[in-house]
Design goal:
The chain is of the alpha/beta class and 207 residues long. It has helices at residues 12-16, 28-41, 55-68, 95-107, 121-139, 150-162, 168-177; strands spanning 2-7, 48-51, 73-74, 143-148, 185-191, 195-203. The protein has one domain: Rossmann fold (3-Layer(aba) Sandwich), CATH 3.40.50. Strands 3-2-4-1-5-6 form a 6-stranded mixed beta sheet, with helices on both faces.
Amino acid sequence: MRLYLVRHGESEGNISRTHQYEHTPLSNTGKEQAKIVAKRLKRHNIDVFYASPYVRAQETAITISKIIGKPVKILDELRETPNPSELNGLHYDDPKAVKIKNKMKNNWHKSDWKYSDEESFNQLKDRSLKLLQYLLKNHRDKNVLCVCHAGIMKAIIAGMLLGEKLTPEVLLGFRHHLWTQNTGITECEYTDKYGWGLLTWNDTTHL
């Protein structure tokens, strides 16, 4: 399997540096980025195309679908790692947001801990591994494209490389040190001999 993970185009929340809702849309720049990355993806002979149900990912995916000529299906496992709803709409530097995020970080090592209604580490890990198992079971010999989000992409890659051995501390490192840009392409490959391999991370040479 060849797996292409693509982050959605720039959103209005990315511009304003606010914690985003599920319905936060693309910016005008994000819409143009989607067209650009679609032209590049067209040469990769995509067999199967999935996207997160969130609006910014759906808008990106619909644009790509029109250009590459492949229908896109919603896959709920590709949704972003949710924040506590108390963060939605707050600027990254808002004192309330900073306080909540610090508390989350300080308790992240507790695998089942949650601030309120977000996912715990264990829930996020299980979702990522479930996604990889689903793709391998159904599309083992295909070129698969998934349009999603920065947070879930990091969790997918961490789960891909470490599987059940993934710990909260390791995933926290992935979150802080693996940076992604809008419409960046991450390419992975699965072979029966070697398992999963990470070929490229956050390729934005199309922009």
